[in-house]
Specification:
The chain is an alpha+beta fold. The protein is 18% helix and 37% strand. The protein contains four helices and nine strands; from the N terminus they run βαββββββαββαα. The strands form two sheets. Strands 2, 3, 4, 5, 6 and 7 form a six-stranded antiparallel β-sheet that branches. The chain has a three-stranded antiparallel β-sheet with strand order 1-9-8. The protein is elongated and about 90 Å long. This is DUF177 domain-containing protein.
Length: 174
């Protein structure tokens, strides 16, 4: 959702309070596409602090279904978003790039709420998502989820250095 910032910038110390719905249906990134299970409206407080400076405060929560890194079962992960950003609108795009300012959520005098929330989710994305700390994962051979029961696959781990000797014994058995 795009919010026009011209109303806030019209007067010094003007405050705009907005409650807007989040339009994202899924979180799409290079990691994949993850469905959003639950989300709240985004509560925004935008304050015109000085000539071309504004402060953006946003609060929301989002629950995203992320597959477990071991067994691939869906794990509902909640993101509590509480953002406070000071933005200098006087900077042109070249200056923002030079200062490594990552305000891609502001274009001209419009605030893209979805991009603001997207960036915050990306920063708080978990390194590893597990359904439980003792998740057993999936079998390397048949792909069965080992949390639901054992499989009949042979799991003996043999020393690869002894492979030549094992082959000799297998030839004698035949």
């Amino acid at each position: 959702m795009l919010i026009k910032l011209t109303d806030v910038l019209a007067y010094d110390n003007k405050v705009m309070q907005i409650k807007t719905p989040l339009e994202m249906a899924s979180f799409d990134s290079k990691l994949g596409s993850f469905p959003i299970v639950n989300k709240s409206d985004v509560e925004l407080l935008i304050t015109h602090t000085s000539k071309k400076n504004i402060t953006i405060e946003a609060k929301a929560y989002i629950t995203i279904s992320i597959p477990c890194d071991r067994c691939l079962e869906p794990v509902e992960t909640k993101f509590d978003i509480d953002i406070t950003k000071d933005v200098d609108l006087a900077l042109i795009d070249e200056d923002r790039i030079n200062e490594l300012d990552e305000t891609n959520y502001i274009m001209g005098y419009e605030l893209d709420v979805d991009k603001l929330i997207y960036g915050e989710i990306l920063l708080n994305w978990p390194m590893k998502s597990l359904c439980s700390d003792d998740c057993k994962g999936i079998c390397n051979h048949c792909g069965k989820n080992l949390n639901q029961g054992e499989c009949d696959c042979d799991r003996t781990v043999l020393d690869p250095r002894m492979a030549a000797i094992r082959d000799i014994f297998n030839n004698f058995k035949q």
